[in-house]
Task: structure prediction
Amino acid sequence: MLCATAAFAGTDDREIADELRALEDPSILKRRVWLDTEWNSFKDSSGDVDFTFGGLWAWGVSDNQDWAVRLKVPVRFHMAGNTAGDLNEQGLGDIKLAAAAAFRLSETFRTAGGLEMRFPTASDSLGSNAWRPQLFGSVAWDVTPTVTFSPSAEYNKSIKELRGSAPQEFLEVFFPVTFLLPDRWGVTPRYEVKVDFANGDRVTHSGKFSASKMLEDRPLAFTMSIKKTFDGGEKKFQINFVVTHYFR
Result:
């Protein structure tokens, strides 16, 4: 731990530490673009591969306050499984646009909140077929210079359903702990809880583990993660590989 602390002691190193934290900490708003490749495998042998192009533009309004806007544009490829009538499909997914503000409360505490709108831009089976706003908020505590606890919550509720889709309303709560390691590495185990109010208040639990590496000669971070639901369901697992470029 002392070695990792020394690795993030300088001004440039603190910038790198914040960039590694920002991957799982919504209270740190850093200008960046990324490509997220996500693979979901299901028990009926079907699979989804999403390529999401994202960008976040942040600016400071004071020493302790930042604002940001975020755009996500997904392209989805669905591989048919054993279910009757399932077909291979590909196309644009649901575009998401968000705005947020973050506040530094002290040297070790931060908070953030915002609103995201999900637009029904996908074809019938590649999206949620609903206009769905999301309220989100987070707090963060730098327990030590190399350990950050940053729980967050997201509340989703569809306001207009299309093409006969069902109403959606659910709450997701995330509990990540990010550990900064020597040589510009970071790892984050995360526990997740989802309450689906539209389906009998069903509660599900998931776990996610991610590892990130920041390059030394350029502001690029590579992140690999795996996610598994503990309550059964149709999904076997989810794997993500994210390439992030920061604007310094």
